[in-house]
Specification:
Blueprint (H helix, E strand, L loop, with lengths): L7 H13 L2 E8 L5 E2 L8 E10 L5 E5 L6 E4 L2 E2 L4 E6 L4 E9 L4
Length: about 110
């Protein structure tokens, strides 16, 4: 049934906004063989991958808090202060971010 008093322009804009807004659906860690791993599996001097999936992520820039008390990380050879990957720009709706696990800095 159509409501003749409904503001269709507002309704259409709300629907379009909902369809185009970036949304994260899941994130998890994997090893080089794409096996899912947990934070308990992080070993210094190894590579892990943060997998992030969502919709409308491509081109979005965010800070990612990796929050780990037992190890630290490097991204592209740069130490991540406070375990935060700053200003990461998504390349697609499923990014696989390579991280190096390192011993915590004192």
């Amino acid at each position: 049934m159509i409501n003749p008093f409904m503001d269709f322009a507002t309704f259409r804009n709300e629907v379009l906004d909902e369809l185009t807004q970036p949304k994260l659906s899941t994130s998890y860690y994997t090893d080089a063989q794409v096996n899912t791993i947990t934070k308990d599996d992080f070993i210094p001097d190894t590579l892990i991958f943060l997998e992030i999936e969502g919709v409308n992520l491509q081109g979005e820039t965010v800070d990612i808090n990796l929050q780990n008390a037992t190890v630290d990380f490097e991204y592209k050879g740069v130490y991540l202060q406070d375990d935060i990957l700053r200003d990461y720009t998504f390349e697609s709706d499923h990014d696989r971010i390579e991280l190096k696990v390192i011993k915590p800095k004192e």
